[in-house]
Design brief:
Chain B: Pfam families: Fer4_13 (PF13370). The complex is a heterodimer of chains A (401) and B (77). Chain A is α/β, with parallel strands linked by helices and 401 residues long. Chain A is 18% helix and 32% strand. Chain A folds into three domains: 115 residues, FAD/NAD(P)-binding domain (3-Layer(bba) Sandwich); 128 residues, FAD/NAD(P)-binding domain; 80 residues, Enolase-like, domain 1. Chain B has a single domain, classed as Alpha-Beta Plaits, CATH 3.30.70.20. In chain B, 19% of the residues lie in helices and 21% in strands. The chains are: A alpha/beta (401), B alpha+beta (77). The structure holds flavin-adenine dinucleotide and iron/sulfur cluster (SF4). The site of flavin-adenine dinucleotide has 30 residues of chain A, from strand 1, helix 6 and strand 23.
């Protein structure tokens, strides 16, 4: 909003007691001990030009009176409001087990600092529950620290809900070769305790994995409870927006005074046929915030928000990057490199169009594929970036469960 | 590179790299080897809060990045 020329008063409300900080290092270099959790505060040009209300949660929204109700009993009135309450870690299914000493999850910097302390104490065995991006990163950190670790997930291979089995299998092999005990096709059932501390994971098949640390990495839940009663269309999957980023009510009518951005926003993506998506990507939070910031500052609506989703994940010293969304992919082709060498690009197609690409240690090729996805280019893709004849591409089923 | 974990958190500079943009060209590592490093083939590790003395190196790193992925906040400038 400032960059777009808004110079009126701005208040930033947040329930965490900290200025905005970078979350990605929390599951990587903070856990290895290379960075303390509190140095990841983000650069910001805002400085003292805004009123910070930190450590105070919003508990309600009254759109008729245009006020936000606060946990300390106060209220905040607004002319324009941005909803950016993000997500929190999905808790373990059984509350009492999730609260056991030795059980961790990571969303905020206090979570990461606590887990770092526990890992530095040299646990005998770590159980990571959930082989999504954060679970894979944590498992890789454990191996970097020389800690025995099991990675448990009901899917056939790590990350396979997002990238499918065809690409997930070679990534699983990388983790296995680094010493991760991969427990795919295994569902965690109970977290067991002994002497009031976590002591192991019981799997659905009856197997027990003894461990002194559990990291619950089951994805995220959107922070939308505070919007209950506001009349907005919101649930645990996000708050619904129109194509520009203005939130909509239960009958689909946009509220021109309120926008949403980042992990909490569910919006129709023009690249994916207007299907509503909510993305948990750092780059998306930045790009969508810039887009709606201009709107809230009063700029013309212009084109709908349509940035190509992108993501990176650092797992040990392996970098996995993606552009686009794989959902609904019916084919995948390795277009660069070789999974056996831990260095490749895979492109995903749906109904004969390129919809996503995943690169492992091959970031330089990705921008070319981002453009193919942006223009819904035919799949299998042709040049610009192919390193082999198009007709020799090995086109496979992506292997989504 | 020195161990960032042991340096005071009150350091004034704030650095953030857009790792979606970063293509591991490593120019920043040549410009400021004490604050940027590549692990493996392309995993960039950087110091998000360098000391004031590093200002010139950090600025050189920022300018040399071919994809302009490096953001710096320097209240001292
Ligand atoms: C451990 C971890 C690692 C990650 N690694 C990567 C990565 O490698 N690559 C990548 O692309 N993305 C990564 N991400 C995702 C990325 O960090 C998020 O997409 C990004 O933080 C989203 O920003 P946001 O502002 O939308 O939400 P958030 O960062 O969640 O910020 C929302 C803020 O609102 C606060 N809040 C919630 N409810 C209320 C309320 N009622 N009142 C007041 N305040 C409230 C929250 O406490 C929080 O401070 C990672 C995330 C985590 C947790
Ligand atoms: S110079 Fe830029 S692209 Fe190269 S490694 Fe550094 S941040 Fe990444």
């Amino acid at each position: 909003m400032r960059a777009a020329g808004f110079d009126g008063p701005l208040t930033i409300l947040g329930d965490e007691p900290y200025r905005p900080y970078d979350r990605p290092p929390l599951s990587k270099h903070v856990l290895t001990g290379h960075l303390p959790a509190d140095v990841t505060q983000l650069p910001s040009s805002l400085g003292d030009g805004v009123a910070w209300r930190l450590g105070v949660a919003a508990t309600g929204l009254d759109r008729d009176r245009r006020i936000v109700r606060l946990a300390d009993g106060g209220t905040l009135s607004y002319d324009a409001l941005l909803i950016a309450s993000g997500t929190r870690a999905r808790p373990w299914v059984h509350d009492d087990e999730g609260r056991l000493p030795g059980v961790f999850s990571i969303r905020g910097r206090d979570d990461a600092a606590a887990l770092r302390t526990a890992l530095a104490a040299g646990p005998r065995h770590v159980a990571v529950i959930g082989a999504g991006f954060i679970g894979c990163e944590v498992a890789a950190v454990c191996r970097d620290l020389g800690l025995p670790v099991s990675l448990i997930d009901p899917s056939p291979s790590p990350l396979s809900r997002v990238i499918g089995r065809t690409v997930g299998d070679p990534i699983g092999e990388v983790h296995r070769s680094r010493g991760v005990d991969l427990r795919m096709n295994c569902e965690a059932d109970r977290l067991e305790a002994s002497d009031g501390r976590f002591s192991g994971v019981l799997l659905k098949d009856g197997t027990r994995i003894a461990a002194d640390i559990a990291v619950v990495a089951l994805g995220a839940v959107r922070n939308t409870e505070w919007l209950e009663g506001s009349g907005l269309s919101a649930d645990a999957g996000g708050v619904d927006c129109d194509e520009h980023g203005f939130v909509i009510d239960g009958r689909g009518r946009p509220d021109p005074f309120i926008a949403a951005a980042g992990d909490v926003a569910r919006f129709p993506h023009p690249l994916y046929g207007g299907r509503r998506v909510a993305l948990e990507h750092w780059g998306h939070a930045v790009a969508q915030a810039e887009h709606v910031g201009r709107l809230l500052a009063g700029e013309d609506r212009g084109l709908p928000y349509a940035a190509v989703p992108n993501f990176w994940s650092t797992q040990g010293d392996m970098v996995v990057k993606s552009v686009g969304l794989t959902e609904g992919a019916d084919a995948v082709a390795i277009v660069h490199g070789d999974p056996k060498e831990r260095r490749f690009v895979a492109v995903y197609g749906r109904a004969g169009r390129c919809i996503a690409a995943v690169a492992v240690d091959s970031a330089r090729w990705l921008p070319a594929y981002s453009r193919l996805i942006e223009t819904a280019a035919p799949f299998p893709p042709d040049a610009p970036a192919l390193d082999r004849p198009r007709k020799s591409l090995d086109i496979r089923d992506p292997g989504f469960a | 590179m020195p161990d960032p974990a042991t340096r005071p958190v009150t350091n004034p500079l704030r650095v953030n790299v857009d790792l979606n943009l970063c293509q591991a060209y490593a120019q920043c590592c040549y410009a400021a080897p004490r604050h940027f490093r590549i692990d493996g083939r392309e995993a960039l590790f950087y110091d998000p809060a360098p000391s004031a003395e590093a200002r010139a190196d950090i600025e050189r790193a920022r300018i040399s990045c071919p994809v302009q992925a490096i953001r710096v906040e320097d209240p001292g400038l």
